[in-house]
């Protein structure tokens, strides 16, 4: 169990030592990890911090507005960057999960390279946590925010990295977030991966596919919000299937619903959901999304699966 007060005092001391009189930016996607890391650094260095939200077009419905609004309400200097076109461009022609992950990672760090140059900054804060490092180092998947731990020097991108949460797992991050007094919508937020919906579109990522998975995700999150689960989302398949809409054959999309229970994301169990809820999700997804003709439920635990499909 984390002693949050001690952790925060030590982290503030170390952040001040690392940053000195310099300015620093924080990569803030809006997830509980990056929000907590950002707020911690803000507590340590105040206005020397600029929180940067990259709008890569891959976020959930309403997410960019939520993140900017929340950061500003916490009194943090905030900058939003519209990088939608840049990000969609890197996915063109890429269908392999690791290839997509590495392309995202590279674009992510390059985008911050640009910002650090513009702002004359030497350090970027990230919300990397222990589970991210473990999965990447083990070679299971290349998490978007892990570099140094796999031997890539972040100075290749022109800056150093500060990771105040690197020794914590998710439950520890939440304890720290609560102790820092962050609003409940942040401290209790469902985990959401940095590469966002790009991990939930199988095969090539396009704006049209992101739009479908975004709407399906919203339905799944709405319908599962009171189930006490770790994570829930929708995944759009690359393959198609035959279905019927308005009495006509449609060769349409397939969506899988994934709902898991977990402590720290290192292992997870597929949630046993009542049939009524499952059926309602399937009905809403196939009715509210014109191209979707089939809806599946993922019964697999981690291991042998991972939580995300990619
Ligand atoms: P997996 O799919 O590895 O996911 O079982 C474990 C947890 O990590 C999240 N995840 C990521 N988070 N960058 C992140 O910030 C990533 O690249 C990434 N990949 C997976 C996932 O949503 C789950 O909570």
Write a brief caption for the model.
The chain has 310 residues and is an alpha/beta fold. The chain is built from 10 helices and 9 strands.
- Distinct ligands: xanthosine-5'-monophosphate
Summed up, the helix count is 10
Mean pLDDT, all residues: 95
Secondary structure category: alpha/beta
pLDDT < 50 stretches: none
- The spatial strand order of the largest sheet comes to 3-2-1-4-5
Question: What is the N-to-C succession of helices and strands?
Answer: HEHEHEHHEHEHHHEEEHE
Radius of gyration: 20 Å
Main beta-sheet strand count, sense and barrel state: 5 strands, parallel
Determine the fraction of residues in helical runs and give it as a percent range. Answer: 40-55%
Shape: globular
Number of strands: 9
Strand proportion, as a percent range, falls in 15-25%
State the end-to-end distance: 31 Å
What would you say this structure looks like, in words?
Helix content is 41%, strand content 19%. It is α/β, with parallel strands linked by helices. The strands form two sheets. Strands 3-2-1-4-5 form a five-stranded parallel sheet, sandwiched between helices. Strand 4 (123-125), helix 6 (130-137) and strand 5 form a beta-alpha-beta unit. Xanthosine-5'-monophosphate (XMP) binds next to helix 6. Xanthosine-5'-monophosphate is lined by residues 132, 135, 141, 143-145, 191, 193-195, 231, 265, 302, 306-308.
């Amino acid at each position: 169990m984390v002693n949050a007060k001690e952790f925060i005092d030590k982290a503030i001391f170390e952040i001040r030592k690392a940053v000195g009189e310099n300015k620093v930016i924080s990569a803030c996607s809006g997830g509980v990890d990056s929000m907590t890391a950002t707020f911690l650094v803000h507590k340590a260095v105040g206005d020397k911090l600029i929180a940067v939200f990259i709008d890569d077009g891959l976020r959930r419905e309403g997410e960019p507005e939520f993140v900017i609004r929340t950061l500003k309400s916490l009194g943090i200097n905030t900058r939003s960057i519209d990088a939608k076109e840049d990000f969609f461009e890197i996915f063109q022609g890429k269908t392999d999960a690791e290839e997509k992950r590495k392309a995202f990672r590279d674009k992510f760090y390059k985008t911050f390279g640009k910002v650090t140059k513009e702002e004359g900054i030497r350090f970027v804060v990230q919300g990397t946590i222990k589970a991210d490092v473990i999965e990447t180092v083990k070679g299971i998947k290349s998490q978007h925010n892990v570099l140094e731990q796999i031997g890539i020097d972040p100075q290749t991108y022109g800056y150093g990295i500060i990771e105040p949460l690197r020794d914590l797992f998710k439950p520890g991050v939440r304890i720290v977030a609560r102790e820092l007094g962050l609003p409940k919508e942040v401290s209790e937020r469902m985990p959401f991966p940095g590469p966002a919906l790009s991990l939930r579109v199988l095969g090539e990522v396009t704006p049209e596919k992101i739009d479908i998975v975004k709407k399906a995700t919203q339905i799944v999150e709405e319908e599962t919000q009171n189930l006490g689960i770790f994570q829930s989302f929708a995944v759009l398949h690359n393959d198609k299937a035959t279905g019927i809409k308005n009495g006509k054959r449609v060769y349409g999309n397939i969506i899988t619903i994934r709902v898991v229970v977990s402590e720290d994301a290192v292992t997870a169990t597929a949630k046993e959901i009542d049939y009524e809820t499952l059926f309602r999700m399937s009905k809403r997804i196939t009715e509210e999304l014109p191209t979707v003709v089939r809806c599946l439920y993922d019964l697999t635990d981690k291991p042998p699966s991972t939580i995300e499909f990619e």
